[in-house]
Structure to design on (626 residues):
């Protein structure tokens, strides 16, 4: 995917240098603010690692082998901005000293692989990993998906850059001046290799390294999962800030849900399967039961088992409507308050018993 | 075997690096010049070769490259193996179908297959291949005749920020350390292998090796950081620039830039 010298027109090269420059500038500022004095050693070492990783032969299903670019790994561990820097440095070294990618195409290669690749990898990883714990399998799949999507996004952008060359740059006889294939050839040709070989290599490396880090060095995955709390840190936060402060959001949500409980009154029809013996005698309710049961008419009488067991326990607040309240809505809200209170009380009691038993 | 291939590739990278350093220290026309004049000159020539489209311009640039190779006593075998043949193989394979796929005036038809080549297709393929060979030769001449650390330090002449130059220099330095570490890891694994790995197992081992290398890299990063701090590093980076431009360097820069400008003008 590394574009050599001579494949892109001067204007494309200059445009892509200009497109990559703001990302380099922004990345340098952001990473400097984040890492302070660690910027130089960390980015340099990671760039060197990415360079070496690109030389690894990854065995792929089907008997072939492929090489990863390291975009997925760099983004998952360093975040998108530091990844842009590290991958750009690795690409520049490759171009200058190893002839892998052209000098005039450094801007294009950095834009495609480092900028587009890192940003796509980050978006995919965050989207797929969500708020899952650092050690979850979901993060392994998310890293694999991020690597696969990143390398293919970079390949697609590269193919488009190749594909527009013959459209805009031809000599007097109509011969292409730079990359010769138009979009309808460049895009499928480029994507075929990346959707299969290169994409899978990047996917296996990204997923494999994240799986390895989950077992050995979980802390390295924390930078791109700021919303996932370390279990030890969470306990210490509760201890230092107090249980209420730490769980304030949960309490507010619970209160909101209690206030909204009367919303159920507006629902039409009957709750399927929640019928009482008296419902079988009410013609209106019988119709509702039939309508919600694919027009299957309910039995003519109350089922014997239901009649027998229904009398075992009579709820103190049937249908969430305390008999002393006229307002149905207020009855729902009060029932919710009472129910939540009873659950909390039960849990507190259970916690107290468990604590006493352990001491 | 995949691991052997990876180890071989890592060894080859190290060997090429050492060979380039050795070559850069032998006496020759380009080796004696200031790195900054070579950076500016070869950058100009690479740009000119990358964007040239007349056969005469490419021919003139090729002659210039040949003169520089001969004057710098660079073995043809070295440059052929490192530049010409790999470019021919990769770019050649890439542009070959263009001679059939590019629409234009029919030249001749392949017997049996009946595929028609076009004049425009052949012209585009030859021009692209020639251009890539010329441009890659010029950029290779810079690194074959200049110690790599001098190339990196010399980049300041292009007004590249110091922090970028330091990042590139440190990366370059640690690439060789990590290449050696990775090679040793693969060799250690190979020396203990009995029988063949299943592909799935081989893939898992490759990922685990990369993971171990990553852990080592991060650990090394911390050690390097503390070593830098112990030497007084506070986030500001400086470069010692001991290069001195002599009249011969100025003359060489003027010649190379003039050739590049002429090539760009001719197109």
């Amino acid at each position: 995917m590394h574009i050599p010298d001579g494949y892109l027109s001067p204007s494309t090269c200059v445009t892509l240098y200009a497109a990559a420059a703001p990302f380099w500038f922004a990345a340098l500022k952001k990473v400097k603010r984040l890492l302070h004095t660690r910027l130089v050693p960390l980015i340099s070492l990671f760039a060197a690692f990415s360079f070496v990783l690109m030389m690894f032969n990854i065995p792929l299903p089907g008997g072939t082998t492929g090489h990863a670019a390291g975009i997925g790994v760099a983004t998952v561990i360093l975040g998108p901005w530091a990844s842009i820097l590290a991958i750009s440095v690795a690409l520049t070294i490759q171009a200058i000293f190893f002839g892998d990618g052209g000098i005039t195409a450094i801007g294009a290669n950095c834009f495609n692989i480092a900028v587009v690749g890192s940003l796509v990898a980050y978006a995919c990883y965050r989207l797929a990993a969500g708020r899952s714990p650092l050690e979850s399998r979901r993060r392994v799949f998310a890293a694999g998906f991020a690597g696969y999507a990143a390398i293919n996004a970079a390949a697609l952008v590269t193919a488009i850059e190749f594909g527009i060359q013959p459209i805009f740059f031809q000599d007097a006889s109509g011969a292409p001046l730079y990359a010769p294939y138009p979009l309808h050839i460049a895009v499928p040709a480029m994507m075929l290799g990346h959707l299969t070989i290169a994409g899978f290599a990047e996917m296996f490396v990204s997923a494999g390294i994240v799986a390895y880090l989950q077992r050995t060095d979980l802390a390295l995955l924390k930078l791109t999962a700021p919303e996932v709390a370390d279990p030890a840190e969470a306990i210490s936060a509760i201890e230092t800030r107090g249980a209420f402060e730490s769980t304030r959001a949960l309490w507010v949500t619970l209160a909101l849900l209690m206030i909204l409980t009367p919303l159920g009154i507006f629902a039409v029809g009957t709750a399927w399967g929640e019928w009482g013996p008296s419902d079988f005698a009410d013609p209106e309710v019988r119709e509702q039961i039939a309508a919600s049961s694919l027009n299957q008419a309910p039995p003519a009488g109350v089922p014997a088992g239901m009649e027998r067991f229904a009398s075992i326990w009579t709820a103190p607040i049937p249908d969430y409507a305390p008999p002393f309240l006229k307002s149905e809505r207020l009855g729902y809200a009060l029932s919710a308050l009472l129910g939540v209170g009873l659950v909390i009380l039960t849990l507190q009691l259970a916690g107290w018993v468990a604590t006493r038993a352990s001491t | 075997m995949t691991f052997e291939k990876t180890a071989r590739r890592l060894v080859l990278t190290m060997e090429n690096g050492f060979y380039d350093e050795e070559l850069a220290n032998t006496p020759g026309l380009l080796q004696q010049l200031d790195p900054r004049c070579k950076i500016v000159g070869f950058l100009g020539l690479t740009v000119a070769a990358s964007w040239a489209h007349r056969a005469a311009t490419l021919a003139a640039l090729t002659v210039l490259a040949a003169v520089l190779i001969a004057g710098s006593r660079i073995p043809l075998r070295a440059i052929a193996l490192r530049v010409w043949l790999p470019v021919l193989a990769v770019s050649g394979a890439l542009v070959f179908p263009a001679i059939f796929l590019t629409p234009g005036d029919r030249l001749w038809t392949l017997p049996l297959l009946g595929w028609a080549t076009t004049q425009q297709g052949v012209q585009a393929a030859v021009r692209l291949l020639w251009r890539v060979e010329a441009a890659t030769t010029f950029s290779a001449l810079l690194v074959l005749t200049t110690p790599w650390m001098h190339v990196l330090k010399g980049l300041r002449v292009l007004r590249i920020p110091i922090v970028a130059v330091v990042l590139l220099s440190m990366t370059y330095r640690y690439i060789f350390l990590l290449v050696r570490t990775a090679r040793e890891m693969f060799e250690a694994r190979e020396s203990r292998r009995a029988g063949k790995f299943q592909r799935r197992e081989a893939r898992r081992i490759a990922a685990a090796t990369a993971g171990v290398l990553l852990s080592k890299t991060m650990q090394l990063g911390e050690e390097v950081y503390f070593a830098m701090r112990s030497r007084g590093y506070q986030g500001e980076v400086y470069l010692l620039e001991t290069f001195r431009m002599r009249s011969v360097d100025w003359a060489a820069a003027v010649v190379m830039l003039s050739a590049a400008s002429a090539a760009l003008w001719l197109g």
User: Anything to note?
Assistant: The two ends of chain A are 65 Å apart (CA to CA).
